[in-house]
Amino acid sequence: MAPTPDPNSVGGGAKQDEAPVKVPSKDPKKKDEKKEEDLSEEDLELKQNLELYVERVQDPNPELQRDALERMRLIGTEGDIGSWGHEYVRNLAGEIAQEYTKRQSEEAPIDDLMDLVQQIVAFHMKHNAETEAVDLLMDVEDLDLLLEHVDKTNFKRTCNYLTSAAKYLPGPDDMLVLDISYMIYMKFEEYPNALQIALFLDNTQYVKQVFTSCADLLRKKQFCYMIARHGITFDLDDEMVADDDDREALQDIVNNTKLSEGFLTLARDIEVMEAKTPEDIYKAHLLDGRASSGASVDSARQNLAATFVNAFVNAGFGQDKLMTVPSDSTTGSSGNWLFKNKEHGKTSAAASLGMIQLWDVDAGLAQLDKYFHSNDNPIIAGALLGVGIVNCGIKNDCDPALALLGDYIDKEDSSVRIGAIMGLGIAYAGSQNDQIRSKLSPILNDAKAPLDVIAFASLSLGMIYVGSCNEEVAQSIIFALMDRSEAELGDALTRFLPLGLGLLYLGKQESVEATAEVSKTFNEKIRKYCDMTLLSCAYAGTGNVLKVQDLLAQCGEHLEKGDIHQGPAVLGLAMVAMSEELGIDMEIRSLERMLQYGEQNIRRAVPLALGLLCISNPKVTVVDTLSRLSHDTDSEVAMAAIISLGLIGAGTNNARIAGMLRNLSSYYYKDASLLFCVRIAQGLVHMGKGLMTLTPFHSERFLLSPTALAGIVTLLHACLDMKPIILGKYHYVLYFLVLAMQPRMMLTVDKDLKPLSVPVRVGQAVDVVGQAGRPKTITGFQTHSTPVLLAAGERAELATDKYIPLSPILEGFIILKENPDYREE
C-alpha cells in the first residue's frame, strides 16, 4: 500500500522523496506492465497527467484542487455531462463563470466554455433548475440562449425569476433581462404578462406588438383594462384593432370611462353608499369634553379642513351632505357651505365638488356649471380646478377640460389662472398634449406673470409630460428658473420649478444627465435643490443602490440654516428605494438614524419620506415612529408626521391610526395649524370610505404609475414648507393626490363587461419565485364573492374552476370567460 501523501508533497516544492499516489489498479502484475508499454507517447502523457491530477485533487490546498478538476473536465471526454449527476453540473457551472471572467480579462477564446454552457443550460432546464440556468447565462452574458431552451412547462418559472432578478441588476442589464422575458412570453402567447413588461419598459412598440399578435377580442379588452389602470394615454389604431366599432369600445376602456361605474358597483355591494359628514369622521363624542369646545378656534380654518375631509371621504360617490345637497331642502343649499369659507377657502370648497363627482365627467360638469357664472374669482378658480379633478385619469374624445379651461389661462386674476392651469395639469397628466404645451409654455417666460402662476404652470407641464424627457418643456422651465430674482428664489413656491423639471425625467435614469449639467449653472440658492430634485425623480422607483448612497451622503452633511436641498434628498431616498420590500426595510432603518443624528431640516423631511415608503400600507413600526414624531417639540416635524400618518393609512380605515388622530385632535385643540393637519390626516385615512388606495404601484407591485407618483411627490414637496403653502393660501395643492387615488378593488366581469359575482380567495401574497414544485401563492386566505377589496400585500385567486380569468394578476377589472372543460359535480 502506498504511504499517505504528505501535505507538503506537491506545490510546496519540498519533499519529493515519498512515492506518488498511484491510480489504484486491481492486480499489479506483469500483464499491466506490458499494457503500459503498448501505450503511445500521447496516451502515456495523458495517463501521467491524470495520475498527477488525481494526486492534486487530494491535496489540501484548494487552489490546486480546483485547477486539477478544471483541467480534467476540459481535456475529458465530450459526453453527456448529465450522467455525472446534479452536484457535478452545479459545481461545473460555478467554475465556468469564474473561468469566463478570467478569460474575458485576458481576452482569451471562450468557444470551448460556451459549448459546455449549452450542455449545462439544457440539463438545468430539463431538471427544474431554471434559476441556475439563468444565473449561469447571466454570468457568461448570453441570456439569448434561454429562448432556445424554454418550453411550455418551464417558461413561467423562468420569466418569473427573470423579472424578479431585474430589480437587483445594475443598468442596462435589468432592461436586457426584461427584454428576454418579454420575448419568452410572446413566444408562448402569454400576452398579459408580456404587456406588463412592455408597460414597465415604457415601450409603446412592444405594447402595439402585443395587440397585433393577439387575435382574440376579449383578451384585447383585458389588455385595455390593464393600460387604463396604468394611467397612460394610449391610442389604438386600425392595425391593433381592425373593426371600427370594436376599436371604439376598446378605446373607451383605455380611456377609463367605466371606472366610475365599476367603483359604484363595489360601493353598493359593500353597502357604503350613505354619504358621510366630517363629524362622522372626527367622532368627537369619543373624546373628553375639552376637544369639542375647540370648534370655536379659527372657524374658517376649521371649515376649510371640513371641506377637505368631506371631499376625500366622499370622493367618487357623487353625493355628500355639504356640497351636493339640493338647494330647496330645509338643510340649506350647497351655496351655504361654500360661503362658510373665506377668500381662497372658497377655491378649495368649489373644487371639492369635482372630488365628490370624481371620474363621473358628465354629472361633475353639470354640477360645477353653476359656479362658472359667479362673480367671485376664488369660486371660478375652484370650479376650474374641479373640472380638472373630475376628468382626472378619464380621457374623453371631446376634451371637455381643455375646452372649458383653455380660455381662463390668460385671465387677469392670478387665482383664476392657477385654477385653470392646475386643472389642466390634473386632467391631462401623462397625456403629452401639445395643444396644452403651446398654451402653458408662454406663461413660463412671461416677465409680467406672477411667481405663483409660473410655479403652477411649471408643475402642470411636468405632470402632462411626466417621464417624457421632453426637451422643449425642459428648456422653458430652465429659462424660467434662470430669470428668477434673488428674492423670488427664496420664495417657497419656487420649489415647484425644479420639481416640474424633475417630473419630466421621472424614472428615466441616465436621460436626466444633460439637464443636471445645466442645473449646475443656476443661482447657488436653488442649484443644489434642483440637483437633488432631478436626481431623486430620475431614479424614482429604480432601487438604484449607488444613487441611494449619493443621496445619503448629502443628508449626512451638517449645514447652515438657509440650505434647503436636504429636504428633497431625504424624499429622494424614499422615492428611489420604494420599489421593493428589501429596499423599503433598509430605508426605514436609515431614516431612523437620520432622526437621531440629522439636522433640523432633515428631521422635518423624514416623516414625509416614511409616509411615501409605506403609502396606504400602515406598517406597525412606522406607525409607532410617526406617532412619536407627532408630539415632537418642533411643530414642523409634528405636522409632517401627522400628514404622513394620514398618507400611510390612506383609504384603509385603519382603526389604530384613526384612534391616534382622534387623540391628537384633542391634544392640539388650541393650535389651529396642527389641528388642520390632524383633520386632513383623518380625511385621508377614511378616503373613499376605505375603498381607495394611494399607492402608485399596481399589478402585484410590479408596475409604477408615473402620474400617481407625480401627484404624491408634488404634495410631499409642498409639505417640506408647510406654512406658506398648505397652511397658507395654496392649500388646494392637496388635490394633487387625486392623481394617485384608485379603487383598491377586484371586480370580475363577463364577456359583455357586466359585473359577474364569483367566489375568490383573498390572502397575504407569498413570494414563490424559484421555489420547487407548485407552491401556494397566498396564505391565510378568506373566501368572498366579488367584487372584493384588496389591502396592501394581498392577492386574490379564483375559488372556482367554472371560469378562466383573462389576466394572471387579479386586480381591478378582470374579464372571465367560461371554462369549456368545466363539469358540474
Present the secondary structure layout.
Blueprint: H1 30-38, H2 41-57, H3 62-75, H4 86-106, H5 111-126, H6 130-139, H7 146-149, H8 155-166, H9 173-187, H10 191-200, H11 204-213, H12 217-230, H13 244-254, H14 259-270, H15 278-282, H16 289-292, H17 299-313, H18 334-338, H19 343-356, H20 361-368, H21 377-390, H22 400-405, H23 414-427, H24 434-444, H25 451-464, H26 471-482, H27 486-489, H28 496-504, H29 513-519, H30 524-538, H31 545-555, H32 566-577, H33 581-597, H34 600-613, H35 620-629, H36 635-648, H37 655-667, H38 672-685, E1 692-693, E2 697-698, E3 703-704, H39 706-719, H40 722-729, E4 742-743, E5 745-749, E6 759-765, E7 778-785, E8 788-789, E9 794-798, E10 803-805, E11 812-818
Parallel strand pairs: 5-11
Antiparallel strand pairs: 1-4, 2-3, 5-8, 6-7, 6-9, 10-11
Helix pairs in contact: 2-3, 4-5, 5-6, 8-9, 9-10, 10-11, 10-12, 12-13, 17-19, 17-38, 19-20, 19-21, 20-21, 21-23, 23-25, 24-25, 24-26, 25-28, 26-28, 28-30, 30-32, 31-32, 32-33, 32-34, 33-34, 34-36, 34-39, 35-36, 36-38, 37-38
Q: List the strand order in the largest sheet.
A: 8-5-11-10
Q: Level of helix content?
A: 55-70%
Class by helix and strand content?
mainly alpha
Radius of gyration: 32 Å
The helix tally amounts to 40
Give the strand content: 5-15%
Low-confidence stretches: 1-26, 291-297, 328-333
Shape: globular
Specify the biggest β-sheet: 4 strands, mixed
Amino- and carboxy-terminal Cα gap: 73 Å
Number of strands: 11
Mean pLDDT level: 86
Q: What does this 3D model show about the protein?
A:
The protein is mostly helical and 825 residues long. It contains 40 helices and eleven strands. The strands form four sheets. The chain has a four-stranded mixed β-sheet, covered by helices on one side. Helix 12 packs parallel to helix 13, helix 31 runs antiparallel to helix 32 and helix 32 packs parallel to helix 34. The longest helix has 21 residues. The chain is globular, with a radius of gyration of 32 Å. The termini are far apart.
